[in-house]
Amino acid sequence: EGKPYLGLTGSLLKEYAVEAAKKENLLRKSLQDGSAAPVAPAPGTAPAVAPRGRTTSLDSTGGSLQRTNSATQTVEWKDQLPPLPRRPSKTAVPVSAAGVVNDIDSLAMVLELMQSKVNDERLQRACLMAITRLSKDVVSLRPLCLGVISAIAQSAARGRQDLTLQRMAVSALSSVAYAHDVAALVAPLALPVVIEAALAFPEDGKLQSNACEAFARLAQGGSNRVVYTMVKYLSVSGVVFQVLCDALQRLCENHICQGHHVLDELIKLSDGDPSNLELQRRVALSLNRLSSSVISPAAVRQRTSLTAQWAHLLERFLRAEEDEAKLDGDFHHKVQELFHEEVALHFELEAAERCLHYLRSGRPAQKIFSEVIRALAENLEDYRSRSEARELAWDVERQCLAPLEPMLRLRLHNEVLTQIERRLPSALCTAAKACSAWPCEEQLSTRTESLMKDCGRLLETKTEVTQVHFEKAAELRREVMLFEAVEYLELHSAEASATQVLSALQMLKASRRAAASCCPVIASSIAGKALGCRVHPLVLAVNSKASTVF
């Protein structure tokens, strides 16, 4: 009828109906399979042997709970539990995970089992399934809801890399948040669990769908809390912000959350830490991602100039050091390869010149081959003397410039020797032509000229590689990127916020530190004065705008 049901509408409601039918079918199947589970033997009879693979004895050694980096809070739920009646048992009966799902009829017993067998993954999964089933009894759930959420959070934190367990944990949380009052009470504890599960497996569509369903349930207690918690996770280092943006988009499209609330929280997060350039980049990318669907582009332009272009400028600035290191590494590696190729090519050229000289002088043919080998030895000796004069060389294994230790020098020497050996057959063929019965001086001259041209082209390649490197290195200078950022703010001075100007000042400080580490004179004379003069008017403009508002 187009009306919301349990806080769900549209596609989320359809997905919820499909998932509910699947869970109901799985529950009925597990109940049917559990009817054939082994029971305790009667007194005086031999115990029945459980079928192999159907039962598993629970591990009696429960490990202590580990505190993780999760933002999930924990609650001492055992204080809320009613006293459990002691059930006398004459013989110990093995308990299987399937038996737990079928036999447990109390949330208190589920919590007790989850606490006592924290390292039993099968039991933890079975208890999560039991919570999904038993949480339908809202009357029994209300006094234990915080304890249930805490137990689910601890189980999910221990199995963060287990996709199946994360799915079950999110489904269990969604079942607990079925009622409006329960959702409002457990939302502060449950939201971080759902968010971290979704971030752990960003490519799993089923988990993302379950997470959106859980967000919709938890939004019954207040959609602003859901938006605030999800946006707050953008400040976590290494977060996959696309997952959070997609979830917010689905919630807004189904009218569970409001786009202007998302915009408010994103701007608050950005204004709260202007010096965190990575956070500013994520916020700008999130706004750009959401402005095409749930947030009005006009509203974004009125509030801020955090556009995709600004995010690109911040990303380039943040990656400047990494890109510069990669550029230097590629340059040194390429130049070293060209140098080794030059040594081998020079050997072949020198061998061809000697063959031509011996042919013109009319010396004995057998000496021509010895001259080729002598040229090889002399070129290797020349390379060895040149390498001994160097202090550093590019280490391919470590991907950095390293001191020329004996092992590295030997490895580089072997690389050059391999290059020369590849050209040795061609040099010997040239020598064979020189000492043949009908030697052709013109062919040897042509071969020598061709090798000289190859050496010239190789030298031009080295020059071109060096020139391209310096051009790219100039583009990666932080001062150049900061000039682009300041120019962007000058062009958008009407929309530029105080946060963006403060971010530009932070970029200026970082540029000065980077320049000071290389050349203190340049840092103080060029970067400080020129950039400072251009940033200062922006600061004055922002201050005057703020004074007008207040």
Automatic annotation (TrEMBL):
Give the superkingdom in one word: Eukaryota
Instruction: Write out the biased-composition intervals (Polar residues).
Output: 55-72
Bias-annotated ranges (Low complexity): 36-54
* Protein known as: Uncharacterized protein
Q: Which InterPro entries match?
A: ARM-type_fold (IPR016024)
Q: Where is this region: Disordered?
A: 31-72
Origin organism is: Cladocopium goreaui
